[in-house]
Amino acid sequence: MSLPTEYKISWEINSWMHTRNQVNEELSWQQWYSVYDTFQSFGICVSLIKPGKNFADMVFTANAGFSLGNRFILSNFRYQERKVEEELFRYWFKNEGFKVFEMLKNIFFEGQGELLPISNHCFLFGYGLRSDLRAKEYLEKYLKTNREIIPLKLVDDYFYHLDTCIFYIDALDTIVYYRKAFDEESLKRIKKLKSKKLEVSKEEALNFSLNSFSYKDKIILTDNERLKDKASVIEEYAKSHRLEFLKSGGGIKCISFIFF
After folding, report:
1. 115 contacts 162 by C-beta, under 8 angstroms
2. Domain assignments of the chain as residue spans, ordered by start
């Protein structure tokens, strides 16, 4: 995770961001620490990376890249506003002993925001708005996994990363998703997956209930009564306020990078 020291709305690079709609700094810190403390209560060790000066979006560490074992694929951000983060992430992961791989400069890939493991079966890969379909070839090459990487095309600007519109609950082997974020071919691919499926409404999706965190028999999610009812074996952590990070199109999952 990265402290929200620099977090503010400095630019507009997705449909959520409006510089006139600035961050309540006190509330963003409270919400960040609420997630951080919850991770600690789960027994999860949280490492911190210091954000660069004026790196307003570096709090969203999920987009740093993707790790599997000791292999780390560094993100190649589409927008210059975030490309400045790449060097800090590259240095941090090398310093932690990871073998770092990079995409070609003309192939965009935005990390865990776009690549989601589904149990031990496969990976779901989001492309079309921020990441390129061509990145799939390099993910297969660098990850050296025998799990299939299934591409899903994103078509709604409000759901620009995969982790904004699909969520996997490990304990229930359930994929929760918002269907209108995907094209028809991608919906067919989701339907063919072995895991159980649960669709959410537009209202639930816009509340970023799918940008959630699943760990063993627990999840952290923004308030979503219907999802809680469906996930009765899960321990829920609902937030009492609308997340300040949503002003940048981010949520609980966006502010955490997970080591697989």
Report:
1. yes
2. 4-248
Phi/psi region, residue 173 (left: phi>0; alpha: psi -120 to 50; beta: rest), is left
Q: How many CA atoms lie within 13 Å of 196's alpha carbon, on the beta-carbon side?
A: 9
From 57, 119, 64, 127, select the one nearest 96 (Cα to Cα).
64
Query: Is residue 144 over pLDDT 50?
Result: yes
State the CATH architecture for 4-248. 5-stranded Propeller (3.75)
Q: Which residues are catalytic?
A: 161, 254
Contact 84, 111 (CB under 8 A): no
Encode pLDDT of 25-49 as tens digits: 999 999 999 899 989 988 999 999 9
Half-sphere exposure of residue 185: CA atoms within 13 angstroms, side-chain side: 8
d(CA 170, CA 218): 9
Token pair for 31: 């919400």
